Amino acid sequence: MRIIIVNDYAEMSQRAARIVASHVILKPNSSIGLATGSTPLGMYNALIDLYNQEYIDFSKVTTFNLDEYYGLGSANPQSYHYYMYNNFFKHINIGMANVNIPYGMCKSIEDECNRYEEKIEEVGGIDLQVLGIGRNGHIGFNEPDIKFEAKTHMVNLDEDTINANSRFFKSIEEVPRKAISMGIKTIMRARKILLLAVGKDKAKVIYQMLYGKITPELPASILQLHPDVTMIFDKEAASLLE
Ligand code: F6R
């Protein structure tokens, strides 16, 4: 595991973007797993800059997002489809046919989850998976007490996640209670993992993830067992580490 501690959010975003960019440059048809939330926004901006400077070509890249709220369509501004399109995809030359995000309005959850897993298999697996981390230790929407062996599946969102994500909605009542998420098994199969975290409110979970027991109570603790993980933290998120 490689841990990089940087001064601030801007530096984390630049470092993360360079890692993603190097994958795309070395393997133009890379499959990249993507996250939403506040943390990777700066990385997306930095990648857009690199694209505008003609360092990277996304035309052969395939992406797989970690998750989507159940019941939100792609036109809904709170959906992760909408977030990804507006914050990243519309600014680069990715083919929208190569973009994969679980479909929150699917008729059959089981079919949608199977389809998603098959699609990942079809491209030969995920080369690099970008992750954020929830204050409760979730990665994707794999909430505490999830089964480590789960693949893409429907999840019930934890109270802490609903509270944390309510900042994106008009009221907490509007936050969906369910989501479709890649499972821990899907995430752990990625050849490389890049986890990003910033801010004081992540410090405790970062410490627990790295030094605590490997337990479904803290889903991100499983990353201790992945053979190729890079983590980038700002000073505040890393403040409890030695
Ligand atoms: C997002 C996701 C979540 C977030 C996590 C941190 O697709 O899967 O696990 O990465 O909730 O969110 P932020 O970055 O908003 O603190």
From TrEMBL:
InterPro entries for the chain: Glc/Gal-6P_isomerase, Glucosamine6P_isomerase, Glucosamine6P_isomerase_CS, NagB/RpiA_transferase-like
**EC main group:** hydrolase
Stretches assigned to coiled coil = none
Q: Which UniProt keywords apply?
A: Carbohydrate metabolism, Hydrolase
What GO biological process terms are annotated to this protein in UniProt? carbohydrate metabolic process; glucosamine catabolic process; N-acetylglucosamine catabolic process; N-acetylneuraminate catabolic process
- GO CC terms: cytoplasm
Q: Which residues form the active site?
A: 67, 136, 138, 143
Its recorded reaction(s) are: alpha-D-glucosamine 6-phosphate + H2O = beta-D-fructose 6-phosphate + NH4(+)
Domain Glucosamine/galactosamine-6-phosphate isomerase positions: 17-224
List its EC numbers: 3.5.99.6
User: Do you know which HAMAP family this protein is assigned to?
Assistant: GlcN6P_deamin
Question: What family does this belong to?
Answer: Belongs to the glucosamine/galactosamine-6-phosphate isomerase family. NagB subfamily.
Q: What is this protein called?
A: Glucosamine-6-phosphate deaminase
Write down the species: Alkaliphilus peptidifermentans DSM 18978
Q: Which gene encodes it?
A: nagB
